[in-house]
Amino acid sequence: MNKKIVLIFLIVITLIGAVLFFTRYNKNTSQTPETSDSISTDKPEVYSASFAIYTNGTFRIFTAPMYHNLSNDVFIQASNPNIVYVRKSNTTWRDFFATLPMKLDENCLTTGTNQIFCSDEKLTLQFYLNGEKNKSALDQIINPGDKLLVTYEKENAATIQQQLQSIPNPE
After folding, report:
1. In angstroms, rounded to a whole number, what is the distance separating the alpha carbons of residues 157 and 132?
2. What average pLDDT does the segment 84-107 reach?
3. How confident is residue 171, by pLDDT bands cut at 50, 70 and 90?
């Protein structure tokens, strides 16, 4: 009786071992370059655009480390925090701002220090993409060389022109 139990036990252990071995073997040999992240060494092309944000005449700065390199797809760096680096195609301005510790939509800006600037009857949040007023700028794809101005001011052509000129040229 004991020999039968030992024999059955050895058969069961052997079967379990064989199943585990073949399961692992199939997982390791079925990887292809298309499904394995660690095999590809290609780096996507990076291009740049630039932006500036003004609130009540104040140029908003993004030199604090809390804004830098927060996404692999779209990011800013300490060396020039008004230059946006884009690695992922079809990335919109909204996608970019969503990576930062702030909130921005068509009507309100909440800064990283929790200051809130919302359009009202006196002041409006406005967007200018490549020098042209554009209410839907946040939904536009960031293209190489784009320049975005976000401004919360009374509408004043001279002020807007100065702000547009302050946006750095993308690298």
Report:
1. 12
2. 97
3. confident
Contact between residue 171 and residue 78 where contact means Cβ atoms under 8 Å apart? no
Per DSSP, which regions of the chain are E strands?
47-55, 58-59, 74-75, 83-86, 103-104, 108-110, 116-118, 124-129, 132-133, 147-153
Same domain, 51 and 19: no
150, 125 contact by CB (below 8 A): yes
> Who contacts 64 (Cβ-Cβ below 8 Å, separation ≥6)?
112
Which residues span the domain enclosing 60? 47-166
Inside any domain, residue 131: yes
Q: What does pTM read for this prediction? A: 0.74
| Tokens describing residue 27 | 């997982």
Cα distance between residue 143 and residue 162, in whole Å: 23
- Give me the mean pLDDT over the 38-65 stretch: 83
Residue 168, classified by CB atoms within 10 Å of its CB into exposed (0-12), middle (13-18) or buried (19+), is middle
Q: What is the pLDDT of residue 43?
A: 54
pLDDT of residue 45: 87
Asked if 56 contacts 123 with a C-beta cutoff of 8 angstroms, the reply is yes
Phi and psi based region of residue 10 (left: phi greater than 0; alpha: psi -120 to 50; beta: remaining)? alpha
What is the predicted pLDDT for the residue at 21?
55
